[in-house]
Amino acid sequence: MSGVDVRIGIIGGGLMGRELAAALGRWPALIDHPVRPRLTAVCDIRPEALEWFRQIDTVTQLTTDYHEMLASDEIDVVYVAVRHDLHEAIYTDVIAAGKDLLAEKPFGIDAPAAESILRACAEHPGVFVRCSSEMPYFPGAQLAYRMIASGELGRIVSARSAFLHSSDLDVTKAINWKRQVATCGAAGVMNDLGLHAWHVPLRLGWAPRTVYADLENIVTERPGPDGVPVPCDTWDNAVLHCRVDSGEYSFPMTVETKRIDPGEKNTWLLEVVGMEGGVRFSTKNPKRVEIFAKIPLSGGGSEQAWQQIDAGSQSAWPTVTGGIFEFGFSDAILQMWACFLAERTGELGPRFATAHPREAAATHRLAVAALASHEGGRAVSLAAEPALA
Amino acid sequence: MSGVDVRIGIIGGGLMGRELAAALGRWPALIDHPVRPRLTAVCDIRPEALEWFRQIDTVTQLTTDYHEMLASDEIDVVYVAVRHDLHEAIYTDVIAAGKDLLAEKPFGIDAPAAESILRACAEHPGVFVRCSSEMPYFPGAQLAYRMIASGELGRIVSARSAFLHSSDLDVTKAINWKRQVATCGAAGVMNDLGLHAWHVPLRLGWAPRTVYADLENIVTERPGPDGVPVPCDTWDNAVLHCRVDSGEYSFPMTVETKRIDPGEKNTWLLEVVGMEGGVRFSTKNPKRVEIFAKIPLSGGGSEQAWQQIDAGSQSAWPTVTGGIFEFGFSDAILQMWACFLAERTGELGPRFATAHPREAAATHRLAVAALASHEGGRAVSLAAEPALA
Amino acid sequence: MSGVDVRIGIIGGGLMGRELAAALGRWPALIDHPVRPRLTAVCDIRPEALEWFRQIDTVTQLTTDYHEMLASDEIDVVYVAVRHDLHEAIYTDVIAAGKDLLAEKPFGIDAPAAESILRACAEHPGVFVRCSSEMPYFPGAQLAYRMIASGELGRIVSARSAFLHSSDLDVTKAINWKRQVATCGAAGVMNDLGLHAWHVPLRLGWAPRTVYADLENIVTERPGPDGVPVPCDTWDNAVLHCRVDSGEYSFPMTVETKRIDPGEKNTWLLEVVGMEGGVRFSTKNPKRVEIFAKIPLSGGGSEQAWQQIDAGSQSAWPTVTGGIFEFGFSDAILQMWACFLAERTGELGPRFATAHPREAAATHRLAVAALASHEGGRAVSLAAEPALA
Amino acid sequence: MSGVDVRIGIIGGGLMGRELAAALGRWPALIDHPVRPRLTAVCDIRPEALEWFRQIDTVTQLTTDYHEMLASDEIDVVYVAVRHDLHEAIYTDVIAAGKDLLAEKPFGIDAPAAESILRACAEHPGVFVRCSSEMPYFPGAQLAYRMIASGELGRIVSARSAFLHSSDLDVTKAINWKRQVATCGAAGVMNDLGLHAWHVPLRLGWAPRTVYADLENIVTERPGPDGVPVPCDTWDNAVLHCRVDSGEYSFPMTVETKRIDPGEKNTWLLEVVGMEGGVRFSTKNPKRVEIFAKIPLSGGGSEQAWQQIDAGSQSAWPTVTGGIFEFGFSDAILQMWACFLAERTGELGPRFATAHPREAAATHRLAVAALASHEGGRAVSLAAEPALA
């Protein structure tokens, strides 16, 4: 690998920061990638969180003040994974410092924050900014996206995109910052999981014309740090019933984000059926893709069939892993970073790009529409999104 | 079988009329049923349709004029399966003639027709009237209903009821009376399939507070009898997103009726999940029921599990068929008639009753709300339904 | 239905006798069948078992002595469902009396008994004799059979046929005659279920060249009528690993009959895969058929796929039931009888015939080979079966 | 990570060598692992294969002569992934050189080779040697193993272990060294895939008493490098039907290794059912585990159920990855190395150990038995394996 060195800094040394550090170590698995990233700096306000990163040979800066990192000349790209209420300040600081950014969703705690970040982008056009969304990099999701984008499904009959969790079914699970409006945002689960479910639809150009939302706050208090119940005031489940215009017709699309969907540990799914074909993928079985077709039968006649195939290991960027092997979440993280860094250097080609700031910001407008819809009991129209390309 | 003889007449000698004739022949399969039905009369305006019934030994009257049948003293119960636009006139005539009635859905072509039939019922309180809905008699559906009705699922998180067909995906399929407003009704697929999907929710007391509807007319013309395209102006697919009040909380319920759902040949499904449990049944696999529970794991801890069990042959009314055997559609028809005739004689006991006229009429009010919702892009409130019992 | 009247007598008024009575009542569901069967006589040594049949209008003779039935001129066809140890005597008596016979499997308690019955057949060539096997009449099984028989699967890679039960997992289940050698036969579960699993393979011409058997008697005693444990000395599970010759090559086929297969309530399955295609059907989901094919992918390339289709209601003989509806066990019984009686009158055409006496007898030779194999720990060769046709 | 540095050398810079290099980069994902491995040397006879490894910073030696690597003081552990016919010479050289070894299966091309390697182990007791087998590290497999080993399943009714591939269904696929006896070994697919399928059964102490084998060589020639057909003389599919002794009883176990199983891209599966419970895991859906239990039903009674749970990301050694995320093949490689290196330092604890040389050697004795069984058409007895612990 003769790739160009890129120096990475992390702000927020939690779960996803460590996952990134591990993913960068696996970088040699990528075949002929133009970039060679190195984790060089990590910032976390909790000094103890920094300790974990001492094992990474390439790390040279550990700090509790992100301004120190931004002041460094030794950083090319910053990954930020912090509480939603901190997104706006930190993201705009990163951008203003001229560092490229892979930002965690939801890209600001609300629409105004997202707009503020977008303005920072506009003011620093040389800074490359994208938003994190790794689930579409599962091979089955990639195949589904290609099939849908090709138009081969014919007139779309229905579409569904969802990200479904279930651990909040446990009402004794302790409160955390993602379960409170102040730190998660008024959009609740839509802030948490929304971009996961919206990334592919938006990339397909399926910004909805209208949204009708069904929102649920099922568990309204949870044990606080000391066990005493405290308010749990965000939305647990959000189901958005949308109409999407597509040339001469429109079609229904349902986009779901749920923290309480019994039995769904980490289910990201995409299902689109049209008059000529259909495709389904779900991480409920991350190895399977289902393709709908009308098939001829022995002896004459035909039947409608869902065809099950095993997805292999190959996603957007080729790797050394044998094509028949099982793909996992950590592979998805690696693929997202491969595409992010390749796009940054203009070498992504036709591969699937990470989420664009406009896509991330669009999820906030959708959440605003959803909140208004839920409040008013009506479908809310959205202004047409400008095309991404 | 020492059951009381009941004489059955059929108006409409089509598919379902013949299915009933066959089901009555299988009556001895029922254990200790209080009634012994005999098919004695059949009416159809097409003389050639009557021919088929000549093979039934007990049939003594074949006529093209249903008034003749209603004038007979030899008929106790009439089953009517005719075009929707004929329901009101025939059903009210049957009732006025003092014959008991099992009516095909949708119980009138629209809400005024249904109200008219309800008035006839009120005017003839001695006449026993119910509406056809056989799918809830699949054993898996019966188990699901019992589990839900017991309250053991805890606070309901979400509910889904659906009846899904796919043959209309074939755009070359010829027009028929169910695909045109004049004969099927303005509610389209909701008239056709609505009671199938609403019967169990309504029986559970889940008349929705609000309905938001997404309606689709995808195939707008189809070949006529001579192959020339004619308008196909009814709704193909209807998805109703509802809120249901349940004591201190409400929950989302989706009720779907579709003629174009690729791959779904005849899928009736019911899925309800709550904070304490869940249950799923679908005729996509008519032998399986899935029950959600939190299960302990070996070595400690627990996991959320969907538990798959094989349903057997036993439904509402016991039969001589071995309990392990596979239940089919014709068994569902038999069970529905077993419960209809048992209820008529006051001997149903706690078993699942066939659809009540008020349930059938409620589907029209729901369709009216759905049409208004679709037109206005908003959730439409429904007046509280009076409790059935 | 202008079919020729055929008068049916039943010897053995238990579960299957009542199932037949119910099935005959449903006969009008068959379209244009050449025969019109009537149940006219029933024999059971338990007078109380006869009572149930009094409700059947056409029954004119109830007797505890089957010789009385055989002496009657009013019987054309006899169905016998009695204990295995009684097969030989009764079947040969029926045949000697010149009555046509549909015999329950295993067609004699052992190979000598089967041979004795075959001799009776040979001595009375005018008597039409077949053996009961209803599971292949499930529509999915019919489709699978047609695909396999067509040769389109290419060189066979592997075949599996099985009939799997699970209720004997309950070790407190009481003993019955099928669990003891004296009344069930030394072949145990192979006598009970063997023809179910062998019918289609034998029909395909797949009489094995060798058999290696793995037999299990897991539960060796069960509660007797008074609760005191008594010996349960038959085989619970039998798995036969066979080689089948097919022209230039041979292939492995596994044929399983199990009383203890946890979770399998009544699973009959057939799975055959070849180099050019494959097919799977199981009553675990009686509505689904899976077809293997290599399918082209969008954008180039191909993948191996199992294609899932919904089977409908139509089996060997057409019925009035709508094609999209669910098929059940009672439909399978009806189809078997439709084909049995049609073949008897020479009007079966290309439809799937019920099990031939030679097929039934072959299962005994297979059981003998299995017992020898299990005893000797070796594959046992079978003499080539004469072709059926 | 304050782990002890361990220097790794690779002999054989192909697919699995590169996979290891990538896995070692991801090492920081492991929580509190006692070892810190570094890839320092790579050997391949093809100089061009070495080029890929230049991107690994820690690599200091690239050589085409493995003796050079073995002569180095800078190597602690060697991983060898070469042709089967080279195993004996290289493995014994590595051991003689005092280097610890993780060897690819089948641990020698045949039983004598395996015995030779075992002797080398015995002669160098200070050398730590294990064999590669990563599939049991899928979390679902770990759960299944724990359940089975706990004894909670009760008397075992049946067991199945398999590794199933399908790409050889394509008869135009070119020959390679794994398809020829000279380089793959006379055991064919059993050499390739056998340890994958045998590792867990052997670990459970389930060395069979007898083996009856069904072997298939379906595709007997394949295109050579120049497209001209050359002999393809190894076994494609091997199915071993075994009896396993377990105290007072024995049970049937089937162990399958197949290159031609249509539709199975890379399916490793383990299914064990007993009288008290059961468990199934398959990489066909690597996220699902199925647990059999008898469950109580609402309203009384119980049913046999297969309970489906979502496996998470956590395997034998804990990682920083969130517990709900999807596990992939590369995670399995990492886990195997985590356990190999932890066992090497005596810090494995109760975690699942990589395959022991005696387990690897046992697969050769099983293959010998299988070949003899296939040849002789009989079950072949195996001498009791000495217990591993």
| Distance between the amino and carboxyl termini of chain A | 31 Å
Counted beta strands of chain A: 17
Strand order of the largest sheet of chain A: 16-15-14-13-7-12-11-8-17
Give the overall shape of chain A, derived from the CA principal axes.
globular
Under CATH, the topology of the largest domain in chain A can be stated as Dihydrodipicolinate Reductase, domain 2
In CATH, the architecture of the largest domain in chain A is 2-Layer Sandwich
CATH evolutionary superfamily of the largest domain in chain A = Dihydrodipicolinate Reductase, domain 2
Question: Which two chains share the most extensive interface?
Answer: A-D, 50 and 50 residues
Helical content class of chain A: 25-40%
Discrete helix count of chain A: 10
Structural class category of chain A:
alpha/beta
Strand content of chain A: 25-35%
Secondary structure elements and pairings:
The structure is a homotetramer of 389-residue chains.
Chain A: E1 4-11, H1 15-25, E2 35-43, H2 47-51, E3 61-63, H3 66-71, E4 77-80, H4 87-96, E5 100-103, H5 111-123, E6 129-131, H6 139-150, E7 156-164, H7 181-184, H8 189-203, E8 210-216, E9 221-223, E10 229-231, E11 237-246, E12 249-258, E13 267-274, E14 278-282, E15 288-296, E16 302-310, H9 329-344, H10 357-376, E17 380-381
Parallel strand pairs in A: 1-2, 1-4, 2-3, 4-5, 5-6, 7-12
Antiparallel strand pairs in A: 7-13, 8-11, 8-17, 9-10, 11-12, 13-14, 14-15, 15-16
